[in-house]
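Hey team,

Filing this mostly as a record. A colleague (T.K.) asked me to run one chain through the structure pipeline before their review meeting, and I want the input and output archived in the tracker in case anyone asks later how it was produced. No errors, nothing strange. Just documentation.

Input sequence:
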Amino acid sequence: MRKFGAGNHKPGSGSAAAFQGMISAKLISTVISLCAEEKRKHLYADCINELLDFQEQIEKRIYPGLADLFQYDSDQFDKTIKLRTARDNEKDEVTRNQLRREALEELKISIATPFQIAFHCKEIAEIGAFVFDNGFRAARGDSQVGISGAVSAIAGCIAIIRLNVLSFNSDEYEYLKSTVSKVNDLAKDYETLRQIADSKIQVLQEEFGEKIPLFEGINNLISKYRTEKNLDVEVCVRDLQNLIWKNKSLIWKNNTPKTEIEILGPDIILKRVLGYDYFSSSSYGVPSEEGEIVEVAGVIDQPNKLVMVSNIYSKETQNFTAAHELAHAILHSQPILHRDVAAEYSGQRKTRDYKEIQADKFASYFLMPKSLVLKEFKKRYSIEVFELNELSAFKFGGKSVVDIRKECKSLRGLSRKLANSISFDNNRFDSLASKFKVSIEAMAIRLEELGLVKY
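Output structure:
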């Protein structure tokens, strides 16, 4: 790099074009390496062999070829310059003419070199376009820079060739005619590849444009509902879920949800929509008013965009806690909030901050939306409201009302049974709690809230 900036003819523009190609080749090869990593190789199973073949071509032929041309162009053009210098300093006309002719012959070789560089860069740009479309999406910046760098190198080669042919006269017409025809063909290839490079930038621009309604929707939702003490939490949740469903293909690039219940992942919404880092660990402690460290179920740190959930509880309780923290991220502006108990135990607290009550309601509505719970409940029990009687009791494996009342001594007990049952009336199914990924207790409470159980 110091030599490029030293003001000398060596290395020159041809070597610079080769160097651009070398950088582009390594960028494209790097993206392919990322695709081939064990943790994501399966994502590219349909094209990984083709990608690896391209990488082999880059590493074994294209990059070494450009590296050789980088040095060769510098050495070759140096010969031309030295002959020109000798020509200009020569007093004898005959010798000067001979040196001029020799310089032009060396220049022909110097002109051939950019053609070779351009050919390699054309391959790089074409490979780069395939890698951009089919390779690691998060590294498409590298892919696009690789394409644009290779295309820029081709433009440089065209300029070098067109400049150098100006040194020839009509006595070299046939050579000039052939060279200009070749460089014109190269210019056509350049224009095609330039349009491809521009189209990849356009792809990224359009993808960001598609996200604007999602970003705007989230911003409007937060502005609308944050800090309202008496807000309708269920309406807020419904607005959020509608926004998520409408933009599901943006949030889930792979395995886009096909049903509404598949979008109910609070950790995914925190990470991919709101930009929070989400961690799960066995221990999270916060200082109490007395100065003691108290273990908590979850913590949200809004200034640093962090949500941390304790994994000492069940997966279902962790899921509810994540939804609880999602509520804080949307509804509340306090920098740090924590949840000290799991959902099914929160009712034991005599006094609770309204923000915690809102967050628990939000979590319940988010994980167990009314319309989906009604739908799944009816699918399992074939009725809109379950009322304990001889017929309904019998459908639990031939039991009587007395049997069920011994097993379920209260409305809550019956609600738990309905939340956890995996069979009814000779039909087997996933339990409601399992379907919605919540605890049995949380599901039982939700069934009661919706008036679906009569004891």
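Quick notes for T.K.: The chain is about 65% helix and 5% strand. The first strand starts at residue 277 and ends at 281.
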